Structures are given as C-alpha cells and as structure tokens.
Amino acid sequence: MADVGGHVAFEAERLALAQLRVDSNEQYEQAVRMATEISAHALGVERVGVWHLRGPNELELTHLYTASNRRHSTERQRLLLPDPSAYGTALHARRAIVANDVATDPLTTELGFYTKPLGITSMLDAPFYYHGAVGGVICHEHVGAPRTWTDAEVNLACSIADMAAVVCGQAQLLDAKEALRDSSARRLDGSRVETLAHVATAIGHELANTLTSIQLAMLRIQSSSDPRVAELAPSLTRSVALATQLLDGLKNFGRAGAIGTRSRVGEILPALVPMLQLLTRGNATVSLHLDEAALAPAIDDSDLQQVVVNLVVNAANAITGSGRGGTIQISVRALANGRVEMAVQDDGPGVSEAVVDRLFGLYVTTSAHGTGLGLWLVKQIVEEVGGSVRYEPAHPGARFVIELPQRTR
User: Fold this and answer.
1) Which residue in 104, 192, 326, 347 could disulfide with 319, CB within 3.0 to 4.6 Å?
2) End of a domain among 119, 149, 179?
3) CA 105, CA 140: separation in Å to the nearest integer?
4) pLDDT, tens digit (0-9, with 9 covering 90-100), for 211-226
5) What pLDDT digit, counting tens, does each position of 354-402 carry?
C-alpha cells in the first residue's frame, strides 16, 4: 500500500507524464514505461500490464512491467475470454474492476487459467477509453497473500488509466501521421520510377541509334586489310554485345514502367541482369537461377523490377561496405503451395542484430548513403499483391525471400 511520501512522488511523476508530448514512437514507449512503473511502485504490485481490446472477447498484452526485476517487456500475448464473459462485461460497465481475491470474485474466477500459473491473487484493473469506447485496460496484478484495495488505490489506478487514454489517443494521431507520410513516400517513389522509366526509354532510343552506327563500322573494321586494325574486332565485338545487353535491359525497364505489363520471369529477369551488374559498380557478380522460366507472378513488371533492383542495390552496398568483392544470386522457383519464391542472396557481412527486428521499417538504414526507403518499399510493393517478404541470415551474408501469388490467367 502506498504511503503519503509515495503519493507525493506519484503526483510529481503523474504531472510529468501528463506534460509529456507523444510525437514519436520513442516518446510513446517512454510514456508507457513511465506509467507502468509509477503505478507498480505506488500500488506495491508485482506486475502492471497494458492490454488492448482487440475484439468483444479478446485482449492483447502490449506492454508488461515486472517490479521485482524492474523489467519492461513488449512481447505480445493474446487472452481469449469466455463467451459470455463476466470480466468482459465489467470492462464496459465499470470504472474499475476491484478483485481482492481473484479466486472467489465472480468477475475474475473465469481468469483462473491465466492468474493461477502466475501466482496472481488480487487484481485492480482500470479500463481506458478513446473515441468513446473501451480501448483496453491497465491491469495491476498482486502476487502473494490476497489484499484489500483501498479507495485511494482505486482512484490512483483510474488516474493512470485516464492518462493511458490520452497517451493512446496521441499514439493514434502519430500512427495517422505516419500512415500519411508512408503514403506520400510511396507516391514519391512511384513518381520517381515513372520518371526513370521515361528517361530509360529516351536513352534506349538514342543508344540504339548509336549502336547501329557502331555495328556498321565494325563490319568495315573486320574486313580491313590492316591486320593491326582487324585485331581490334573481337574485343570491340564483345563490348558492343555487352552494350546491347545493357540496352535491352534499359528498354525493358522503361517499357515496363510506362505500360505496366505483366510478363513471365523468364522474359523479364534475364534482360535485367546486365543492368543489375552495372549497378553493383563492379564490386559484385550478379547471377540468376530460374527453376522454371514460365513462372508468372501476379505483379506488374515495373514493380517486380523495382523489387529486384532495390534488393540487389541493397546487397551491393553491403558488399561494398565490407571492402571486398562478393556475389549476389537471384533465384526463382515454384513452391508446393502454388506460389512463386524469389530470393536475393549475397555473401556480404549480413545484417546487424540491432536492426533485424525493424529492418523493413521506414527510414531504417545501415548504409551511410542509404535513404531507408529501399526495403520498406519492397515490403509495400510485395504486400500490395498479397505476397510476403522476410530476411534470413545466410552465414555469411544475407538472404531476402519473397513469396508471390501466381497469376490465375
């Protein structure tokens, strides 16, 4: 039970919490940590959990503070309530659920499957509201001999819940702003790709004319009576062949971006490899392995190209940063579930454990010159067509695996 000094300290902490602006995810986490610590130590309970209502009879734990080891955890846990549920009904009808003995209180006996394994004997739970409805509940869980909650402690718990409502409201506004920024960034990248497609088409047209002139000149060089001139023909022929390959990739990239066509992987990826090789700036060798060239993923050519380009550039940057050359392999195969798997794997230094959990987040980058948009954009594009993307350590290196549905027709 909190003493007078504890209540004074609580008032100071509560004032600090009330004045905290939630303008970032870091500040939101700070507010939640502060609120749970305040209530745990002021009320003298072992555990304080922030549970969000996900359905009529479903709660999800999003944050847990344990007082004995002063540990915060954001590991998610789902709790399904019985149907009908006395506890669930009370959440919508009461300012607080006060259970001095959870084993005998009619509102909490149904939670024995949750409370008994954790040794919880008494609970003081305060629902919080936003948008006029119950959004969740702050659960104060006492471990030890059952205790009787005082009016002052109930009021304290309700105050914390009121502040939680404000924090959650600010967090929702933050999410809305983030979603708007995501949408703007997506449109910006789409605009960049469209512009790049037009540029690629224009460059491809001019290069085609130039290569035609060079090929005509090659015929004259090959037939030259001067052996020193004729010796130049093989190396020049190889250079022209490479330039032609790059041109084909550039033209295909521009055509896909402008028209939004959908092709089979065997029609689009091989032509893209020379351009991908160019993007590695000579620091890596790009190879392509197709189990079945006729696979047809349900994604526009321009989007597929952008996904591959982003992943290859990401891999190339990692290899360049390691200070040595490397390899990048693109592989495509059919899965037993009817989907198409595309993997991009490199033998670079891999991904730091510090960023693995947020690797596909917006503006997350480990490169000094990165924008933090590449992997985020890959995720957006892939998920828009019902696909998925994941990261796998390659030992050495990194492997990004994409699963896409196949076209039905």
Assistant:
1) 326
2) 179
3) 16
4) 666 666 666 676 667 7
5) 777 777 776 656 555 455 567 888 888 888 888 999 988 888 889 999 9
